[in-house]
Amino acid sequence: MNSKVIRRLLVANRGEIASRIFRTARAKGIETIAVYAEGDSNAPFVRAADHAIALRGRTPLETYLNVEKILDACSLTETDAVHPGYGFLSENAEFARTVQSQGIVWVGPPADVIDKMGDKLTAKSTMQEAGVPTLNAIPITKDTNALSAAKEIGYPVLVKATAGGGGRGMRVVDNDNQLIDAIESAQREAQSAFGNETVFLERWITATRHIEVQILGDTFGNVVHFFERECSIQRRHQKIIEEAPSPAITPELRSQLGSAAVSVAKTLNYSSAGTVEFLVSGEEYWFLEVNTRLQVEHPVTEAITGFDLVSEQLRIAEGEPLGYLQQDLSITGHAIEARLYAEDPMQDFLPTSGTIKTWKPAPFARIDSGVESGSNVNIEFDPMIAKVISHGRNRNEAIRMLTRALEQTHIHGLKNNRDFLVQTLRTPEFAAGETTTDFIDRVRPARARQPEMEEIRGILAAVALYSQLRKNDRNDPKQPRLKAQLPAQHHALEFDGQDYDVKCDFVSAQQYQVVVGGIRIDACVVSLAENCIDIEVGNRRVRCDLFLDEDTWYVHSSAGDLEVHIRPLFSLDDTTHLTGNLSAPMPGKVLSLDVEEGAKVKTNQLLLVLEAMKMEHRIVAPYDGIIAAVHVSVGDLVEKDVLLVEMADSKQINS
Q1: pLDDT per residue as tens digits for the range 135-170
Q2: How far is CA 391 from the centre of its chain?
Q3: Angle (CA) 232 22 61, round 5°
Q4: Mean predicted lDDT score pLDDT of the chain
Q5: What is the number of other CB atoms lying within 10 angstroms of the CB of residue 108?
Q6: Is 388 within 8 Å of 240 (Cβ atoms)?
Q7: Which conformational region is residue 550 in: left (phi greater than 0), alpha (psi within -120 to 50 degrees), or beta?
Q8: Of 178, 160, 206, whose CA–CA distance to 440 is shortest?
Q9: pLDDT (tens digit, 9 = 90+) per residue, 289-300?
Q10: What is the pLDDT of residues 16-56, one digit of tens each?
Q11: Residue 35 near residue 74, CB atoms below 8 Å
């Protein structure tokens, strides 16, 4: 039993979770220590810590998964305790043992519990012994006949990594033809993300609810649960919207799930925070896995219970008892969390990377983030930008608050899923609580916001007027002022692939006649300031914050963010387009190359595999043809849009 006072805490993690843990530690008077990879050297979480140690590397394996380097950082800073956050080494029992062997407090469950529960197959066996329903699963070893195993379980099957989470190392397979490739791909991805390539096959149930129960135990044998979270809305097997409590769980089922979670935790002598996950269909449920760590979505539980779970973890690690019983806990209101990712929903949610030009979170919601304006989202790590959390008196209020918080958060410079999250929250199905795991495929929320033409004209008028007044103010172009008279000017702008000729003509004090794509608009400039314009179009106000980066205006209005591109008034036809070329959809590393020049390929045949942000992305042939040229090799690091392979139609080659 540990009773050591924690004075210095090292967080063996990065980004928003490191920042979030530092926030609680500071409030408790604990010094904080960050460790960081080269790509994170200027990240906010590094500056948020009292001390920071460079890990001298770029990839997860070189940095946040490198036990020796993290232990060296502990020694250098005379660390009292290590908090692993989530992901990386958080469920690595050997790391926990090694930390404790150095006389350092481990802020998490005992290493032997991590061994039993951190491995999903062992966890299943433990649950079966406790009488909790489980789904059939078969481990894949070198001696396993994978095709026979899949036949025994029955298609569709899920290939799943035994270590880690977050959707890594997971593949849904529908038939024998897909199975071997899926297993090998999942193994590579699991090894890269968690340092453990072991996978197993499990029955895949298409339309269920993903329900998890938050547990917390102390070192005196006391365990309580903090009710359930609904985490069913997922893409790529990774959660994007979570809420507490679940809109579909009855009080009776809540009691059953909570009791099952607590019972198993007590059997294991569980201490610290953890999560027991279930698949639920109606009143039937199956154990899924145990996460022996803090979850990404823990803020929704904090919101409805009033507890700081990180603070509770630190108290327990110092040897304090819980100090409360299950009957002391209750649910207040409803909370929802949305994960804001750097990804392109229009390209099947492929991760994106780049620099965040502007970041201004909405002031009326909890936002856990690890970024700021100027932050770089790189290809080595998870592309999550922030978590936006609302808490309302009821579910409808929480939905409304979260929707507006997302819309009012400024984020520019790289593609992200913010508009997709808003569209999802506004579907009738989400409002009705029909949030099963097939939600995205079944409901098909709009992947992007489609503004009405009236809004587009207003935004284009605002951009053109601000640009015109800014350019004509020779005294200080950054601080534009209204002029008594300015000549008419043309502005060539592009929005969403459509070109617009915008003409702004001075009429009288603050009044302009603006022509957008042949449509006349009478506009009045109400106010003007640096990076901000407020105009009146007819009887409608259009207020915009604007930021110019090279040839792109990043615009934020009450409805959200838009990008308006500046085009030359006169341009040549584009003669550079080549058909049959396959370019990198995101920056990444060429993991495998499955074709060579001159090879004949069929539609959807695998050409190569890119690895980006700890996930694999398959590049396949768009049609039957011949490989005309290969421009990359295995191990190459490529930027977005770099030409990878050139293809030609076989008939074209033969002619």
Answers
A1: 888 989 888 999 999 999 999 999 988 876 667 888
A2: 20
A3: 70
A4: 90
A5: 28
A6: no
A7: left
A8: 206
A9: 889 999 999 999
A10: 999 999 999 999 999 999 999 999 999 999 999 999 999 99
A11: no
